[in-house]
Amino acid sequence: MFPIAKLKDGLRVHFMKFAGDLGMFDITYLFRMGFMYADIRMRYDYWLGDIWVLDFKHVALSHIFSLKPVILKKAALLFQNGLNWRIQSIHVINVKGSASLAQRVMDFLNKFFSAVLISRVIIYENPEDLLKHIPTEFLPEDYGGCAPSSSVLIDNVETEFKRQETIAFLMNCRKFVSDERKRPKDEYCEDNLAGTFRKLELD
């Protein structure tokens, strides 16, 4: 997961690239890293919205359907209702299989994410078509762009995560919880409301 330094009309372009041994794929670890990454962004970054590019080159359908529904539902709730970021578009490239297979994946994710967010997903059969939607200055060198290569950008993110100041900040974020004792409670009980309200008369 890495960002492009330059903003595109106030929007931050982000890449998520799956690599390594996907046999060790852990969705819980992925979401934890993602939300820590979000905490760091909210501290240092300034943007109006996001453009995401997901590279599924090393992802198989078995990885998608191995996702635990309970964890996926919680992550979707935290993302959509907690962060509430403005995602302008999500570009998915290098999807293995046919378009119908990609549609099955979208139907699965549609159970957890809002219809609006799902409608902003664009799946490319040809990765080069990405250049028609995102200019080269906002793409890494190994994706046909002018920005530094993805390996360099990933190293930058990893270096940030290892900084002592960042580690201390993330450890402190773990202490942030809501005090439910201060949450306003309902001052009325619906069981005490009698009658119907089908007719309304105005003078």
TrEMBL record:
Short name of one Pfam family: CRAL_TRIO
GO molecular function, one term: phosphatidylinositol bisphosphate binding
Cellular component terms per the entry's GO annotation: membrane
Origin: domain of life: Eukaryota
Record-annotated CRAL-TRIO domain positions: 53-151
Record-given protein name: Uncharacterized protein LOC113496142
Native source organism of the sequence: Trichoplusia ni
Source lineage: Eukaryota, Metazoa, Ecdysozoa, Arthropoda, Hexapoda
Gene label: LOC113496142
